[in-house]
Amino acid sequence: MSPLLRAELLRVRSRAVVWGTAVVLVVAALGFVVAAWDDTRPPSAGALAQAQEELATATARWESDHAGWVEVCEENAERDGEDPHVLCDPLRTPPTLEQVLPYRPALVETLEHRYPPMAVVVLVGLLVMGVTLVTADFGSGAMGTWLTFAPRRGRVLVSRLVAALAAAVPVALVALGTALVGIVAIVAVNGATGDAGGAAGVVAVATARALAAGLWAVAVGVGLAFALRVGAGVAGLVVWWVAAIESALPLLVPAARGVTLATSLRAWLEGGTTYGVEECVGGADGPPVCAVVEHVVSPVQGAGVLLVAALVVLGLGAVSFRVRDVP
């Protein structure tokens, strides 16, 4: 490890933006924990009493009418050529309390619904952290002082990037761990664990994708910061990019939706995604016939677009840092 990188790693641990990002992400993670509690909380006494009344009404109706329901069902099944046992046996079973109580998802379903969205929160937080780690030094003049002792700008940029990535890993893991432990604990306390056999796989895949997306965001943030040097400039560019490239361009050129950063991120985080493009076919004798054709974007394709974007941004940042004066 070079002395420059060692100094950057020691320095980044004391940066307020790193600790501030960690705190903000943990607070955001607690929001997902609260949402999981709301999803899985047991019914209140009032809801349970109402469910008991509904069950009594449903049971009385079933006892008086289920024979007729079964008879009609069997007639329809024979007419349609279907198996009457498969189709009609559920009508022979009396209603249960679970059927009238509000639905509560089990642990795996709760994790699938609440844990992966943490990736977007981590991505945004680490993007801001990556930008701030660099722009703060340009704004305070610390970058110029740093270059006095380490004049090789390429090494300075690489050391800043590596230090930012190293700081991002524990920040992301703390936030993701808070969400994960909180969701699991809340589901267990609420007694809605159910069959947790697939939980480990869901967590492993979502964590890996979220961590990779967060590191990508840090790299992009560092590159943008070296290119523009001012946080307001980076914010303005991001807003312009979202409005012009991510929103307006796909409306003008629908095929471009497949290579936008939003689509690529969704493909990576969700294990693939689709987008629709209207395609028209018309002959000389009649009007064109149009239909929406779905195109698939694989996670590998999305990762490729994101990697190219990060390399381009870092390259532009390196060129700007090398050719422009630093006060």
Instruction: Return the structural class.
Output: mainly alpha
What average pLDDT do the residues reach? 87
- As laid out across the biggest beta sheet, the strand order is 1-2
Shape, per Cα inertia axes? flat
Helix-strand sequence? HHHHHHHHHHHHEEH
**Approximate strand percentage:** 5-15%
Number of domains: 2
Q: How many helices does DSSP assign?
A: 13
Instruction: Provide the helix percentage.
Output: over 70%
Molecular structure report:
- The chain has two domains: 3-29 and 106-252 and 301-323, no CATH class; 45-100, no CATH class.
- The model has no long low-confidence stretch (mean pLDDT 87).
- Helix 6 packs antiparallel against helix 9.
- It is mostly helical and 327 residues long.
- Helices cover 74% and strands 6% of the residues.
- The chain is built from 13 helices and two strands.
- The two termini are 28 Å apart.
- It has helices at 3-12, 16-40, 45-80, 84-88, 97-100, 107-114, 118-140, 142-149, 153-189, 199-228, 231-252, 261-270, 299-323, and strands spanning 273-281, 289-297.
Tags for this model:
single chain; 327 residues; mainly alpha; 2 domains; two-stranded antiparallel sheet; 2 strands; 6% strand
Give the structure's gist in a few sentences.
74% of the residues lie in helices and 6% in strands.
Protein topology:
Elements: H1 3-12, H2 16-40, H3 45-80, H4 84-88, H5 97-100, H6 107-114, H7 118-140, H8 142-149, H9 153-189, H10 199-228, H11 231-252, H12 261-270, E1 273-281, E2 289-297, H13 299-323
Antiparallel strand pairs: 1-2
Helix pairs in contact: 1-9, 2-7, 2-9, 6-9, 7-9, 7-10, 9-10, 10-13, 12-13
